[in-house]
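Backbone-to-sequence.
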């Protein structure tokens, strides 16, 4: 469900006065015992509001808000195991505006909660805009019921690729708090978590409760009237594997996360991760206490992309070295520590190239002359 000019919603206007009309959305979800037709009840609260929306909003909006159609669609998929939601291309200036995509997310969430999907255990939000987690949150989303969370607590594998909330000294906290609240939904069931920021680097979603900008005394809020409640630390009872990418984090935050999940965690990957303070030795110090020794350091890997450079005959060696030097100076290194899954690169590289003889045959049969 990409964001396009067609999904943008302009303000509702009173046709007589030209003033903006407030619209409070309440999803229309007929009950099982409701024998009345949808046409005999106003879809959007009142007949006046329904008439206004029909005249001013496109059919795409009404299709996105048609919850019964979403329910019928998901009810026809009883064997659904994996659900991927993709909402790309939202402009940064629209992060605080509701679009047709958001209404579709509300309908989708309600449909999943009210359909019998016993096998659904994997959810992927890739890519997703920051405000989407508000409408997908079963505890605070529009149209949520007290038992809505039961369906989502069966999700054990979660992948999120979210448009970046830029890392600044005083970032707006609203979207970060919504993300923290959404991850809390899966605290008891999640075994595999992957999260990456799309775009610029952002704060670690696993330690938002330790960020100064989200604490009670922080005055910088995009919505100043929001309640200044302290965030509860995230603790996943069954988390075995986690991966975060494109984040800014403190060594103390990494250390605290490892310590909290030491009884269940088996692998954790940090891709394009920048330590704001401290060192990786400090961040991974809990591994020494967990294992009782520092032998894990002998198996730790520092992983980086290494290009295979094939230089045509006649190219000066100094020029090749200059290109390689420029590449390594701009390529960030990635530290990828894991528990129980250390051996990766060596064996895979040998399988890929098949040894030196295979590479020699490859170069000899090339159309061009290489050295």
């Amino acid at each position: 469900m990409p964001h396009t000019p067609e999904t943008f919603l302009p303000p509702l206007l009173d046709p007589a006065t030209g003033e903006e009309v407030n619209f409070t959305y309440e999803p229309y979800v007929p009950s099982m015992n409701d024998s009345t037709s949808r046409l005999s009840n106003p879809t959007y609260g009142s007949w006046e509001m329904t008439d206004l929306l029909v005249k001013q909003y496109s059919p795409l909006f009404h299709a996105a808000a048609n919850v019964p159609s979403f329910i019928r669609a998901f009810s026809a998929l009883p064997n659904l195991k994996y659900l991927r939601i993709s909402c790309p291309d939202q402009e940064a200036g629209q992060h605080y505006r509701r679009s047709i995509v958001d209404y579709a997310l509300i309908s989708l969430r309600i449909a999943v909660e009210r359909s019998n999907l016993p096998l659904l255990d994997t959810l992927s939000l890739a890519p997703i805009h920051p405000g989407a987690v508000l409408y997908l949150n079963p505890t605070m989303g529009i149209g949520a019921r007290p038992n809505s969370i039961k369906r989502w607590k069966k999700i054990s594998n979660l992948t999120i690729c979210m448009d970046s909330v830029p890392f600044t000294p005083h970032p707006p906290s609203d979207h970060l708090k919504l993300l923290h609240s959404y991850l809390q939904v899966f605290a008891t069931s999640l075994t595999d978590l992957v999260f990456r920021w799309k775009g610029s680097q952002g704060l670690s979603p696993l330690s938002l409760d330790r960020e100064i900008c989200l604490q009670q005394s922080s005055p910088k809020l995009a919505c100043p009237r929001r309640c200044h409640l302290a965030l509860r630390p995230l603790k996943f009872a069954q988390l075995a594997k986690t991966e975060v990418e494109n984040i800014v984090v403190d060594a103390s935050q990494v250390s605290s996360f490892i310590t909290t999940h030491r009884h269940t965690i088996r692998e954790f990957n940090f891709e394009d991760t920048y330590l704001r303070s401290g060192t990786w030795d400090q961040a991974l110090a809990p591994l020494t206490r967990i294992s009782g020794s520092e032998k894990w350091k002998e198996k730790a890997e520092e992983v980086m992309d290494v290009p295979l450079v094939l230089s045509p005959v006649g190219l000066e060696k100094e020029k090749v070295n200059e290109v390689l030097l420029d590449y390594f100076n701009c390529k960030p290194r990635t530290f990828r520590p894991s528990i129980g899954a250390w051996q990766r690169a060596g064996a895979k590289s040998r399988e890929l190239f098949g040894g030196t003889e295979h590479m020699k045959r490859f170069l000899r049969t090339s159309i061009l002359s290489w050295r």
